[in-house]
């Protein structure tokens, strides 16, 4: 198959997966009881996609990724409610991740593994940014899948993976415990602990320092930018939502391993 056909398909499938992810991102926190449902749908697949404001069922024409958003100028066709730029960004992000997955994958099994990792991280990133939660329903399967795929030839060895999960999750749990002890309030959530365990499982123990360094540096830079931007109170008072930076760090570390920038062992 010509390369451009393959990458064209990846772009399209990625956008469609992004479109599906938008529904999951909206509904999973409600379905898991993390945020109020307020009469809005919380089933992940049922009812089918509908406007969050007026409940109108979306027709196939409204469901074309990216194009529908642009043609409708980001508004519901019936009630005019704003659809939210997040929907467009997740669809575009899905396209880019689709292309990256095809580019990085050395085999069909790797294609599945990388795709699952990237899209679950995208969902976790947006859910944490919007709600402040990293749902167990995503972090725990991600951890299990990381351990499972370690038996495939393109990932860290099972030993690396299991030690990575144990040391990553355990280390962060200790850090969270110490923070609670000394500051008397929650600094890192349990979701962060499970996410780092999953990151250790996917990337291996040897990669953990790099992974945590990337997440901390990008997280601190972001907090600094918020302070410089005059949002000092918000940056300091709000608990730092670490999830998005952890997700980005896991994706980057795993990508570096696939490109053999450093050997996971
Ligand atoms: Zn509507």
From TrEMBL:
Its EC number is 2.1.1.-, 3.4.23.43. GO terms for biological process: methylation; signal peptide processing. This is Prepilin leader peptidase/N-methyltransferase. It is found in: Cell inner membrane; Cell membrane. Plays an essential role in type IV pili and type II pseudopili formation by proteolytically removing the leader sequence from substrate proteins and subsequently monomethylating the alpha-amino group of the newly exposed N-terminal phenylalanine. Belongs to the peptidase A24 family. Keywords: Cell inner membrane, Cell membrane, Hydrolase, Membrane, Methyltransferase, Multifunctional enzyme, Protease, Transferase, Transmembrane, Transmembrane helix. Residues 12-102 form the Prepilin peptidase A24 N-terminal domain. It is a multi-pass membrane protein. Residues 116-224 form the Prepilin type IV endopeptidase peptidase domain. GO terms for cellular component: plasma membrane. The keyword Protease applies. It comes from Parvularcula maris.
